Batch of 4 targets.
Target 1
Amino acid sequence: MSDDKDAVEIIDPEVQQRWNEDLHAIEESIKLMLTNHLQEAEDLLASSTENVAQRDFRFDAGDHDMRGCFTFVSALMSLINGLASLENNQLDTVLQRVRLADEELQLDNDWAGRTVLRGLCNLVAGVVEIMQGMPSQGVWHVLRSWFWLRNLECEALKFEGHERGCVRSTALLALGIFNLFVSMLPPTAVKAAGWATGFSGGRDVALSQLRECWEEGGIQAPFAGMVLIGFGVDVSSFLGELRAERDQRHLMAREILDWANREYPEAFFFAGLEAGYLAAVRDLEGAVAKLDQIKASVENLPAFLFLVNVRRATFLLALFQWREAGDAFSDAVKVYQGVGRRALCPSLSLNSHLCYSRAGCEERAAEMLETCRSYNKEKKKWSPLDRASLRQAEAAYRAQCQAARAEDAEEGAMEGDAQDVNQEASAMESTWRPTMMLYLKICLVYRGVNFMRPEAAKEFLRMVQEETDLQKDADGRCVGLCIQAEAMRQGEHWEEALKLADDGCALQPELSTAGIKTGCLHFCYLVLAYAHFAQGRPHAAQEALAKLSSIGVSDHFFQKQVEFKATHLRRLVGAEFEECYREISVAARSQTKLVVELPKGTSAQWDFILSSYSIDFAAIFIPESGEEEELLRVEQHEAEAGPCEGSAGPFASAGRVELVFSNSFSILRGKSLQCRVQPNSLVVHEEK
């Protein structure tokens, strides 16, 4: 309702009653979902949809067809329910529901609420596609949502009418999540998609919008609160924000958690976030106790139980409770095995083995190592983390065999055991360092030093120093120095972090290729840049980031983690970004070709985004000797379809891949597109 007393909205009582009923159904379904009654929430939305379908809509009187809204909320329920119960193909189901919601929204009259929800449909579809392993397509859909969201500041945030509370709350949430997502994207992804959509985003604006959404207490307040807590207690430390800034975020998180305890008591989502908050403020014992409380309430929800076990394990590691951490990792594996899931089982089994080994529980350690190795026999496309864990498990097994029998006997026993394992090894695998591997996971993977009190962090550093002193090769010393430097960075001891990182970087000429692929050298340069920035030397930080980019090995173990952290730091220091996308113009009745030179044994990945209309595309491999091979052909690829991407290799012989963009079918229109070829070290040239 307007603040102007002369502009009072007059609503038909029947229309107002319908709106109240529909809004109540949405609010109740959200409350049921947040308090772990997922199926009841789904049933309520289904019955509400049936009721709406019977109506004779009076759009001219302010009536609305809310079926699209119900279907969208149902899609979110499906996402949470599917992930919680570990149902197969749950993400496909979510995408189908989101697309159905978008279709049903078009049955409603044209108003600000419909615009907001259509933007959210694209936003959620993009996030789901990223979860499905389609990052280019997902980012494209997220940023395409800007076509609907870009006018919300004037259309939705200032909306006047009986629907104002719902519309404004949803608009603030949509804009906040969109801007927050964009603020964390790698610059190349932002550049490519922004070129086609014209969006703009910012983290400060995002967090302000989310805060407004929560403070106003509208229908989307709980979701905005969850995002704010998650960013403040987890994402903030992942990005490497300084503790003074994180402390302020923790105060806000505590305020939201206190509100949630009143409004949504015993809600799993907020309880899980509170455990993360307690760890972030260095109350690890409290965090573990909170997770223990949650565990009993999620026994029938495998995914939630899995997450609780993994989170408990990481906190127990930071408490140096090795055996208990091993038990928690083992329990997480059992949950997945119980529902027929395999992803992450090799990695968590190996984690359990490392914990038991450190605790001196040799029998349990051997059992979990065999559990990990058993997955070598599975025919599955493993994630990079699981592939590394399987290789590491074989390295651990080889080390055990060498300690127990003569080398020739060991080789005979091993000949058939590891035939399915990828033989590419890192320094951590070729020379098995189990204790160092455990410390690396605590510090670099789980960021555990952030959770430790000062005396515990000091003890952890002593243990790492002791293990580093035992290393006889440069690869091992670099790993140890990297862990120590990152521990100092997390504790914000900048002089010590700077020295340790510098010592690690100085080992670069002595490192093997396998040693560089551990990613520890990359992490040392990253810590170096953070330390310079924190001490007020932005130019030195830029120089360290430039050296990080110049290493040339992009497929290291910490590739994604380093990329996100470096992106955040580059924005802080104002460093220039390498432009990975090239703009290509294809005239009417012609074609343009990108030629990628490929040395023997190398691979290539590509993706392109078309600005408008359509284009034909083909990727062809031409070896130095032999017949050419067509890798991919796409006819009439539409701009609306988003990115087109592909990969090829590694190839047994040297040659070249030709990426051919054909516009020969178009008589009048030229076409423009952006194309990226990776890795950046490949030689690429354009031919008309």
Target 2
Amino acid sequence: MTDATLHPYRHAIDHPDRPAFVVADTGAVLTYRALDEASNRAAQLFRSLGLRPGDRIGLLLRNGPDFPIAYWGAQRAGLMTAPLSTHLKPEEAAYILKDCNARVLVTGRDVGDSAVALAAAHASGELGVDAVFDVCAPPMAGAQNWQDALAAQPATPIDDETAGYYLVYSSGTTGRPKGIILPFTPGPIGQLGQTEQASIARLQGFDPLVTFNGAPLYHAAPLVSMIVTHRAGGTAVVLRKFGAEAALRAIDQWKVKSAQFVPTMFVRMLALPDEVRARYDVTSLEMVVHAAAPCPVDVKRRMMDWFGPIIHEYYSGSEAVGQCYITPEEWLRKPGSVGRAVWGILHICDDSGDEVPTGEDGLVYFESDRPFEYLNDPEKTAKSRHPRHPTWIALGDIGHVDADGYLFLTDRKDFMIISGGVNIYPQAAENRLIDHPDVADAAVIGIPDPEYGEGVLGIVQPAPGVEAGPALERRLIDHCRAAISNIACPRTIRFVEELPRLPTGKLAKHELRRRFSTVDA
């Protein structure tokens, strides 16, 4: 789909002083005029460095105005933008830059040690990029000043504007991240990818369009939210760093119409004292969307009681091969479901690739005519395909479909615990633990067990003011056993100050397995 009106430059002509991008907790505001001029300068800069359509750049940035400036500059120059997590270690970030053959890195001293180390590696010729830019002043050793570099370029469009796109990397919760190459052919800068088309259709009815996303822009969903908000001429409100009260304040201050969250954000907002929640008016919200991780049913019910029946949910992946969607009205009829397929055809299959009966758990496949590829990893690409149907693609989730076609997810296949020959999916126990008032966050993993192969271990972050210890452990185990089978419940619980969650809400379970691999269940 190509539409010349669906690009920020059009809104810079029609509404130059409208805020395009707001960082609510710092007060930074970028208008459409400023975004247009700065992104033109960025595109000119990339061309001056010899970058051509199809080349790649890396963005290692915290949420701030330089993120959309760099992104839209690259988009106008036909470049593929690879956003990097600010939590990456220098070696991990360097791996991604090398893996995608990035020509330029835009980062900032405020990211921390990884940015400093990458700039130093560039100075010594070890990073493999042509240039590193620092959005902070003074620039780090080995980096050029981003603002000075932009100021030296004209604020007019380059002669050969071509649509670029994004190249996101998987979150790496179970191993090294992989680049996800989505189907996209460079063309006019108003050209939309399929994910953009699906997302923008849900935003075009809001007037004025003001969106909120509290997660980092280096993740696919927040990035797409920003992109489609700018394509539709709206105001994208973000936070430098998510805080439960800061999110409510931003919604109130900017009269947000559409907001996107992950379930852990719901949990943190619900944990606020009633008097804090009452300070902020959230009645401007007309639609709330959540995704990225499972949401306990009770948590979602409590959010609907608070925000109203405006909470929508979708299930998809950065691979963009299909999507399920469920409205609030549907979810109240089908609590726990992630909806029916709105693009792609669902298939639920056993380990042999045979489709299972309605209601039976299996590996979730989307039948898609837009297959992606994992960059430089044909083996992983092939593994995602069905053994007999190459257009059926699995994202690694286990679930079942009911008689009405609604999908219910059970867990990630990689997280399955095999104890005494029984397959155990930890999501049910995790949801049960998180439902307890003494728990702030919880995870359930499998650990080595000499008798059963794997044992079930619970890892709990107690709620503020709750004392960790044997008494709490006993209460939580009894709480689990009151609702789910004993075999799926933790036999032992360990307590931590904080669980390793990504900003998307996903648990970094490989870290937990590494840390607790020698614990007796």
Target 3
Amino acid sequence: MPRALPARLRRALPRMSPRRWIAGSAALALVAGLTGWAVWPEDPGFTFTDEMLTVRSGPSGDEPITLDTRYFLPDGASTEQPVPALLLAHGFGGDMHSVHAQAEELAAAGYAVLTWTARGFGRSGGQIHLDSADHEVKDAQRLLDWLAARPEVRRDAPGDPRVGAAGGSYGGALALLLAAQDSRVDAIVPSITWNDLGRAFLPDAAGGAVVDGVFKKAWAGTFFSSGASGGASGGASGGASGGASGAASGGAGVPAGGGAPGGVPAGIDPACGRFAPDVCAAFMTIATTGRATPEAVAVLDRSSPARVLDRIKAPTLLVQGLADTLFPLSEADANARGIAANGTPVRIAWYAGGHDGGAGPRTDRDRVDELTREWLDHYVAGAGAAPPQDFVYSRVAGFDAMDRGLVTNAYTIADYPGLTGETTATVVVAGPAQPIANPPGGNPAALSSLPGVGALSSVLGAADLPGQHAAFVSEPLPEALDVGGSPRVTVRAASPAGEAVLFVKLYDVDPDGGATLSEGLVAPVRLTGLPATIDDAAPVTVTLPAIVRRIDEGHRLRIVVAASDQAFASPAEPAVHTVAVEPAVTLPILTGTPMTGPDAVWRWVLAGLLATIALGLAVVLLLARARHRRVDRSVAAEHADTPLVVDGLRKEYADGFVAVSRVDFTVRRGQVVGLLGPNGAGKTTTLRVLMGLTQPTRGEIRIFGHRLTPGSPVLSRVGALVEGPGFLPHLTGEQNLRAYWKATGRPWADARFEEALEIAGLGDSVHRRTRKYSHGMRQRLAIAQAMLGLPELLVLDEPTDGLDPPQIAQMRRVLQRYATDGRAVLVSSHLLAEVEQTCTHAVVVNKGTIVASGPVEEIVGDSPTVHLDVDDPEAARAVLDGLADVRPLVENGGLVVDLNGTPRSEVVAALVRAGVGVDRVVPRRRLEDAFLALVGDNSRGSGDR
């Protein structure tokens, strides 16, 4: 047996002719090639080398300093084909590894990129001087010399490389200071950096002197800790912006080699770590007292681009983050104005990231990359047209469920409007003068932001402590406002201490009371010379940090003035201040032109492809529908004023199941018609066909004479609640109703909104989010939705489901009143007692067919027994005993009488003649009795679907 197997295999396989051998070999070679291509490592387009370079800098220019460098060289760069270069600097607390990814992108794009670890960080030597002109800036100049000596780097002249400089935060300030000090820099892209380092760490939103500013202790402490450890902690600049330019050059990377060679340099106080003595002394002074000195401010001033902006001639792209409590938008604004005053080309871009927001949403990262490459390609590489100098900004548009991140929209404005906006809007806030307390030692303090996660407060909410803040609130906004820039508010303060440190905030408060402090941004103010009483206080204009935010219609503004804040140093002495806010709050408004994102082309291509597919499917469906039935647009004149006519309705499914075999009934104006039947009788199927949710197999439905078809315009005259309500849980009841009506395409004025709400009886609950609704509240909201526009025909499936008895009684009156105005109502319900009390007519369905229809009293019919309410039951019984064929029975204080054919009028007359008072005569037969007689106690329907 085993010896026969190969022969069988040979017979089973096809005969290998020369043509098949060639084809098989070619296929095998193709598969092998594709497999090799898939697994072969992709050529990155560049190489890089690491080198410890010793440069000479310092005040005298001969101080040796060792810098850890990494040099990226694009493929093909040579003496014959030199390439432009780029210096890429990292953020505070980082090192050259922090910007590795950005360096790779730029090297692949054709730039020779030199990155390095700044002095005092990682494996580089020296001390931290905060981008001092004599130290870090001179170090960068020596690196320019090194690039100028590289044969593969393009030169404008001997010793002058064709070079740009970029970096984020600490690296961004270096790019500005280097361009001011060295004219060889051809273009710069500084991001999320500072203009005035003293003003950044000692801000005063009322415009006071830097030396009197409010110390930003949380950020300063974070920086000091990171610098003292030589960057080993991973980086205080928090993930700065993100882009191919190195805008994401925050200090996220931990140095591979640890701290400086040999640890803390000799002669340096160990408490200062690798900070230079004067920098350390400045921090210690401010951190200890909470107040600056002129000497400390002078140290910060020498590291501030503000003093040298008039010397920057290199075209500048300034990228600044919206989510940045360290270096807010005002820093970029000051840099832009100072550089533009020289006639230097400047472009400003605000994006939804920063020291608190990281690299920002993907949409913004791609946009910053594109802007950076466009800027460098023109001004450094000499390729492409000159980029526009318009203003670009982003605004958060929502949440992308696919990427699980924020999505932003970008806008452009031809002329940069600064922080005051293109126009302004005034919102009035109200509230009396209020006392606020500064706690002893400044603790506990309000929480508005945390270093590196300031945006967290936008999600979790800032914590304003009771007794330490005053609030002033506006009315709901009548329309949405697109705020872009620095809001301004006028405050007055009084204090027996004569001085106060205040923190002013602007909250966006939604209709549910949820308050958002944009990116945790706060305006600190130090006020001196204050009077003891608020009536004597002078107004002070406070400029709040710039924001970009859409404040929606119906939201409120809340101005909060607090006496403490965890991020800042507050006076240690306890005090009680009195604060007031002038009513008018000025909001800057931006109305930019939407900008196409870098990935928009692919999205449009995908959208076009999907639209083509959808169009093709629609055409197929329309053709199929046209073949199966012809749309009847005629109007039956005899039914033109009849709300509903159902004629010969039958619904049979593909598997042969018959849900409705034959249904005929009419609903006329002024009628409330109850559709009754046991479970599975066909009620829901009838309603689904009526609302166009499914197609009948046979028969037709006419609404005001029009034959019902899916999407028929006559459906606008019908309101319905079928198969339960469905609402968006994050919207309020009112917002859900507005969204529903907007989808109809009809004017809001036609919605008769207030009337529908009054009918539904929701009251103030309509302003709550529907996720907080009970089942009954959702049902009432659904009824209100069905009644929007007060349609001429109202179709309701179990409208009292989830309502309590008082609400059911109210709904009964509502439906009766609704029909009396010439409208009509069709109600499907299993509550027979309610149908009997509510409906004028009834249609009883059983097993897919109608077994009875007509006025309710006709279906109920004459009752063989009656219930008599009399004033003397015993006397009445004695009278009735004397009547032939009448059998009386006393029951619960009343009298039940079996008439046995005797007319009710004769019974009543006999009682009245005998002096017995008759208050009421009620038939004992009910709709339930008639219903059971028609369908039987054990009736089962056909299995309604």
Target 4
Amino acid sequence: MRLVKIGLASVNTTVGAFGRNVDRALDVARRMAAEDVTVGVFQEQLIGGYPPEDLVQWQGFVENQWPQLERFARETGALSTVFLVGVAVNHQGLRYNCAALVAGGKILGLVPKEKLPTYNIFYEGRTFSRGYPGMREELRGVPFGDFLFRFDFGLLAPEVCEDIWSPEAPLRRRTYSGAELVVNVSASPFRVGHGDTRRELLATRASDHQCTIAYSNALGSNDGIIFDGGGFINQNGKPVLEEPRFQEGFAAAVVDLDRTLRLRAENTTWRSDREAWLREGGKLVPTIDCTAAFTSRREMLRYPVPAHRSFFLPAPDTRRSPREALCEDILDALALGIGDYFEKTRAFKVIGIALSGGRDSLLTLLIAYRYAKRVRPENPGSLLRAFYMPSRYSSDATREAAETIARELGVSFQVVPIEEAFERELNIARTMLAGAEVTPITEQNIQARLRAQRMWNWSNSSGGLFLQTGNMSERAVGYTTTGGDLMGALAVIANVPKTVVMYLLDYLLEQTGYEGIRKVLAKPAGPELAHNQVGEEELMPFPILDACFYLFAGEKLVPSEMQAALEAMFPEVEGARLRTYVEKFIRLFLQSIYKWVQAPLSLHIGNLDLDRERALQLPVVTSSDWTKG
């Protein structure tokens, strides 16, 4: 047996907070060593925080990470653990995103990332340079490039995040060169359902390449990108450990690396593939011997046996239902997004919401309350402020619903009518129009803008974080007011479709039984900016609206293809009506890009987000002529 205990760390980092990031990592590192961890795995860009974006172009941002890496090495020098740490380095004028190997008080090696993503939210190719096969260089006296590292417990191959996502991954040549333990330091953003994707990918890679993989993911939210933490250990395709997500700390498990070598020897296909690779000119990756620099202590480790004491029977099933997993993941991710924005900016003292009595602001309040419960468990409501600002169109039912949920949560609730200001602004608008009548849309927008203005005034004087409460579906088609309900400091559910908003509220009602949720759901969804307003009557049924958005913006279908898909999805709706909905969606969507590019910073939870800088990069000035083919 060759037992190794692998620890996976989750550290909530802040971009640019080098010293604080390392302090948090050192705390986890010491706890790992105290529990006999042999190899401790941290995340990508641990020291600098992720994503640094164009800060990497500042030489000082990169150069100042090195002293902190040295400090980490120095302060862990007495620990009997090898650590993998994510860091940015400057080499010959180029910036590299690296995994640093640290043990025995020394930096033993740097392995740069090879695959630099430039899709979706990522822009790494803009700022970083790539490592490459056969790279053999030295940085500050440290081996820098494509290397393996030999310790007394086995042969280790570091790599960084995206390197494992490519089928032409570096781990192919590294395992063919003898690497037994592949360690991936990662910063993979949260995406709905993405945990299953990671799990399956790592199982596939570990099985295909006959190795043990340790994968540790970043934790925390920076600029709306949410990292859920967690990690996996998989040995030759067999799951060993799954680290909990959305929480700081670490998890660890023992593996027998002799088992990895035995399975590799038994797998005739893997051996044949390796032989073919060598015949075709494959180059073995060189190994750096670290046995003189570090000696592990593994005498306390015990063979990994199943907790339920059977190698043949399945372990108890602790998996959540798909409904619970979906809802809890989204709620946890968005609560983390609010909390990290609130704490890391260090600009706010309290969180405020314009609570309308409708679904969107209710869900936003409940998510903020979820965060508040974590940091102020004794009195979460003390961190939140809710403001109800009625006009002549506001109903008693929405006021009662808003007041009820605020009371149930223990949140301060103020009624601040806007009727007098609404009438005054109407008269001013008529004057500016030289007597012409104000349009109905303008009447609605005046109310929304008055509410936003008051929230900003409150925010400026109280140090309050003003949360924007609009959802993705209505934002996509411009069913929102520029300077009004589109405004706020942080858009919490701006990338949550309306059907998902309602699904989450149904779930939360089941879980909590809050009467305030029940009262909100009892009334049709509508903004109450005019008499008897119902959102689905003014737009289209929300399931069809969300389907249109997905098919057009996600699947990139043209109108005729969208209609064919909708007819299959909604056979009960006549084709002519579906055609009308498609045409209406396309027109509203393309006309509304100018609106949603002005929205505040949004939290990202899916691959299909309304964010011109990170997801859907569409021109503001555009025509729909091309859709008519």
